[in-house]
Design goal:
The chain is an alpha+beta fold. It folds into 2 domains: about 200 residues, Cytochrome Bc1 Complex, Chain A, domain 1; about 190 residues, 2-Layer Sandwich (Cytochrome Bc1 Complex, Chain A, domain 1), CATH 3.30.830.10. About 40% of the residues lie in helices and about 15% in strands. The strands form 2 sheets. It has a 6-stranded mixed β-sheet, with helices on both faces. Strands 7-11-8-10-9 form a 5-stranded mixed β-sheet, with helices on both faces. Strand 9 and strand 10 form a beta hairpin. Helix 11 runs antiparallel to helix 12. The protein is globular and about 65 Å long. This is Peptidase, M16 family. Keywords: Signal.
């Protein structure tokens, strides 16, 4: 918990003396301050105008989006492959992460050092990552360097060397990272939550067994890459200031020869419902980490925007109901928050909080009380309006950078949404009514469908849970 220290500003004695000398002997009383005027009413949020993107597709299946944006002479490029942890077998957990990290460790034409130097010479640095559903390689450079950046990204994704020495080194890094992660109660709570929701589906395999991770070889990495990475699963985004003809030529030159590889593969999960409490005992812990989760609507749902409003009002921003209750009013926790975690045709809502051990039961009771209230009673129009203004403003900020726009395009493309989703997002948010929020809460946030996770001192916490709900026993 952060402590705030209040400091008093001291006025220099010399200035005080000067002030007294210059003041009149018999000063009249100061005139009363003018009445403070109320601030002007906020203007209606402006809709986000999505720049029109030019799209084309190579014969090998690579999809390309070119989108002019801004006045600064810079351009962001990102190649996204629809493969991630979701395509790992039970014996391959984190093999996708290992493969992704090794992409920057050398190609058949460049060493790792040469890759970094090439990116730096273009005015940027290579950004590579692996998520549950995607792997990406990105770079932001000066506009004039866009064609060279295309060539560098193409080399990294098409010609990885996967040298054995680097495989062993990166594996060691991952083993150490995993040990650090497993010491954190929040990570342990997330791991148990995903196991409870998804079982043996790849989404439920949060960590690999250490022996499994240590056993991965360069040959295993190469096999995983060959089976999952290719142009048919890839999209290339270019956003910023650039010469379209030059960039398109560079893309065709660099990527036409890339193998198509496997077609996109869906591996949709079936979420489970764990009605009983899932507990991870940490004897002597002074605080508990809690998760309350329920299956949610995926982005493809027509009610997804309504769900976004519901989540924000309930626990998704600083002025949300749960935050105001257990942080501001009760002082049980410092930073509670809720979110909707999404995958292709899948999502779950979760309320997160770290609370003092002594008030674990009361914190859960208050969370469930706020949920119950919203299920029964539509929120006041003024409260909803504040949430809508927050979401509209946040959305515009998220689209105020080249990388932010790429993230939005990735979202709509992954979930099969039209660009009009972005164009109409602000209007869709502002159209949500109090009745919409209450109706969706009643349908989605049922106690019987919730999964509860607590990481903490089980001996101290268990007696508290009796006052919460039979569903937690």
């Amino acid at each position: 918990m952060t402590t705030h220290t209040i400091r008093t500003r001291l006025v220099a004695p010399a200035l005080m003396v000067l002030g007294m000398l210059s003041a009149p002997a018999f000063a009249s009383a100061p005139a009363p301050a003018p009445a403070r005027q109320p601030p002007p009413a906020a203007a209606a949020p402006k809709p986000f105008k999505v720049p029109v993107r030019t799209e084309f597709k190579l014969d090998n299946g690579l999809e390309v989006s070119l989108l002019p944006y801004g006045d600064m002479p810079k351009v962001a490029l990102q190649l996204v492959v629809d493969t991630g942890n979701i395509h790992e077998k039970a014996t391959e957990t984190w093999l996708g992460d290992l493969t992704g990290k090794l992409l920057s460790e050398g190609t058949t034409t460049r060493s790792a050092e040469q890759i970094a130097q090439s990116a730096a010479s273009l005015g940027g640095s290579l950004n590579i990552g692996t998520t549950m559903d995607q792997t990406f390689v990105g770079l932001e450079v000066l506009s004039e360097s866009a064609p060279d950046a295309v060539a560098l990204i193409a080399d990294v994704i098409q010609n990885p060397a996967f040298p054995s020495a680097e495989v062993d080194r990166v594996k060691g890094d991952l083993v150490r990272e995993m040990a650090i992660y497993k010491s954190q109660p929040g990570i342990l709570a997330d791991e148990r939550l995903l196991q409870s929701l998804y079982g043996d589906h790849p989404y439920g395999r949060y960590f690999p067994p250490e022996a499994q991770l240590k056993g991965y070889t360069a040959e295993a990495v190469r096999a995983h890459y060959d089976a999952n990475v290719g142009a048919a699963r890839a999209r290339l985004y270019v956003v910023g200031r650039f010469e379209p003809a030059q960039v398109e030529k560079a893309i065709r030159d660099a990527f036409t020869g890339w193998k198509a590889g496997p077609a996109r593969l869906q591996n949709l999960p079936k979420q489970k419902v764990a009605k009983a409490l899932q507990f991870i005992d940490r004897p002597g812990s002074v605080q508990s980490t809690v998760r309350v989760a329920v299956k949610a609507l995926p982005p493809s749902s027509q009610d997804y925007v309504k769900q976004t409003v519901l989540n924000t009002l309930l626990g998704g921003y600083f002025s949300s109901r749960i935050t105001a209750n257990i942080r501001e009013a009760k002082g049980y926790t410092y930073s509670p928050y809720s979110e909707v975690s999404t995958h292709l045709e899948d999502a779950y809502w979760v309320q997160n909080a770290d609370v003092t051990t002594a008030v674990t039961g009361e914190s859960l009771k208050e969370i469930l009380s706020e949920v119950a209230t919203l299920r029964k009673t539509p929120p006041p129009a003024e409260e909803l309006s504040a949430v809508q203004s927050y979401l509209a403003g946040s959305f515009l900020l998220q689209n105020s950078s080249r990388s932010g726009i790429i993230n939005q395009l990735r979202f709509v493309d992954l979930h099969g949404l039209p660009d009009s989703y972005l164009q109409n997002y602000v209007q869709s948010v502002m159209a949500v009514t109090p009745a919409d929020v209450q109706k969706l809460a009643a349908k989605m946030l049922t106690r019987e469908a919730m999964t509860f996770i607590v990481v903490g001192d089980q001996k101290a916490v268990s007696p508290q849970l009796k006052v919460v709900s039979p569903a937690l026993k």
